[in-house]
Specification:
9-stranded antiparallel β-sheet; 30% helix; 11 helices; alpha+beta; single chain
Length: 464
């Protein structure tokens, strides 16, 4: 690693921390649009603050109608590398104990506050990397540009607007994930299965059920109302369920109960406890009426067995040449007196096609008696792990950290999913859970220094 970069990163860490604190103090959560503020006043304020920092450190900026601000290392150099980050954040949420969400403090070698790791801290690490190169008078032959977005968390409309006016650079990385490097983001398809089947009013019936708040999240609550049940009947059945599934429950009266599981992102469903599926499993421990409605309800756990996340119940389990496997999770549940509907989320690997995935799922679901609807598949994002671009990024990472660099695939999506040669590159070091999107989000200070060094070395290697 260039020792000038290392010295700069260490000497300017206090400035970097102050800039992060000031940027993170702006509660840039999506709000109602206003004139010249498409994502709300605070999102615009954070975006403009980021642009002013770029100008303060000597980089000429371009404002793309308050959607994006871009800053060039040198506009006279041919554009080659883009660094894509964002200044918006998720809502503060509850449960903060170390500090208030938008009041960054330093404690035990960490900066705590919303945005410190997603993505204001890492974005400013990339800016300081450009600053380190500039102030160390290290020449570049090709151009590097920071692109600051303001809508990554809620739809990425900002980047759509930007690329309506600008071409993609030859290479792009986003400092909005984890090191070493993410070169594959699984594709996705979501499907709805539904059926009309009314309550017949005889024997035990599931009258209504709701579970799930989003298609991309395993439901942690499932509430249901029954007909023909009692508290004693519930208690006996729920204890049998608990022997199979690690859930809690509440019995409200002779008819209503709640199953309590654990939420997880749909890309990692194995980390959760699906309360919706657990509730449908409960039916097998109750004396349900023998009718078509209950037969259909009983088919759902066969199509999506609890604890099975590879889609085998609908015939789509598969693993690609990179070792990435398909995941499928049933996340939205709705049952009423007239019928039922469910929605699943599937993250698919490189080998997935409409034929072996979407059409196969349709056949299994329709044969089980449900109507199936699907808007189509989002393709996999893939940048070859042996490309020159990826190799240079990983070499820079290894050079600075001494850690082994390798390209990995994930089930989620990042800011670069739709870019032809885009990867996610840091800034969080392996093994660190910075509580992104959660209470007490943080970023280690030494991780900030390392990120500046890695990004600066990567820029030099790619554009020098």
């Amino acid at each position: 690693m260039d020792q000038r970069i290392k010295s700069f990163a260490e000497d300017h860490i206090d400035e970097l921390k102050k800039d992060i604190k000031d940027l993170c103090a702006i509660p840039s959560v999506l709000s109602d649009p206003a004139p010249q503020a498409p994502f709300g006043e605070e999102c615009r304020r954070a975006l403009r603050f980021g642009g002013k920092l770029c100008e303060r450190y000597g980089f000429k900026t371009t404002d793309y109608d308050n959607y994006v601000i871009a800053a060039d290392f040198d506009q006279d150099l041919p554009r080659y590398l883009d660094i894509l980050g964002h200044t918006d954040v998720v809502p503060a949420g509850e449960g903060w104990s170390v500090t208030e969400p938008f009041k960054v403090i330093e404690k035990d070698g960490r900066l705590y506050g919303r945005g410190t790791s997603d993505d204001k801290g890492p974005l400013l690490c990339a800016l300081y990397a450009m600053r380190a190169i500039k102030e160390s008078a290290i020449p570049l032959k090709r151009g590097v540009r920071i692109i600051m977005g303001s809508d990554e968390e809620t739809g990425s409309i900002d980047i759509e607007k930007y690329y309506e006016k600008e071409e993609e650079a030859e290479c792009t990385f986003s400092p909005d994930a984890e090191f070493p490097l993410i070169n594959i983001e699984k594709g996705m398809f979501r499907g709805d299965l539904s059926a009309c089947a009314s309550c017949e009013g005889e024997g035990v019936e599931l009258v209504s059920m709701t579970a799930g708040v989003a298609t991309n999240a395993v439901p942690n609550r499932a509430r249901a109302e029954f007909l023909g049940t009692s508290r004693q009947m519930f208690a006996s059945a729920l204890e049998k369920l608990k022997e199979k599934v690690p859930v809690d429950y509440q019995i409200y009266d002779d008819r209503e109960i709640m199953i309590i599981g654990e939420s997880a992102h749909a890309s990692t469903p194995e980390k959760g406890v699906n309360a919706g599926l657990a509730l449908l499993m409960l039916l097998s421990y109750l004396p349900m009426a023998d009718n078509r409605r209950n037969s259909l309800l009983g088919m759902v756990p066969k199509l999506f067995p609890y604890g099975v996340y590879d889609g085998r119940g609908i015939g789509i389990d598969m693993t690609d040449r990179e070792g990435l496997s398909l995941t499928a999770t049933l996340d939205l549940f709705k049952v009423d007196e007239k019928g039922m509907s469910f929605t699943f989320d599937s993250r698919v690997p490189l080998c997935a096609t409409e034929d072996n995935c979407l059409l196969t799922a349709r056949r299994y679901i329709e044969e089980a008696g449900f109507t199936f609807e699907c808007p189509g598949m989002i393709p996999v994002h893939y940048v070859p792990g042996d490309s020159d671009f990826v190799k240079k990024l990983l070499n820079a990472y290894q050079d600075v950290t001494g850690l082994t660099g390798r390209a990995i695939g994930i089930g989620g999506g990042t800011y670069v999913h739709d870019l032809k040669n885009g990867v996610a590159f840091g800034a969080v070091l392996p093994g660190i859970d910075t509580r992104m999107h959660g209470a007490d989000e943080f970023m280690p200070v030494d991780n900030l220094i390392t990120a500046v060094e890695v990004y600066a070395q990567a820029i030099i290697d790619i554009c020098g």
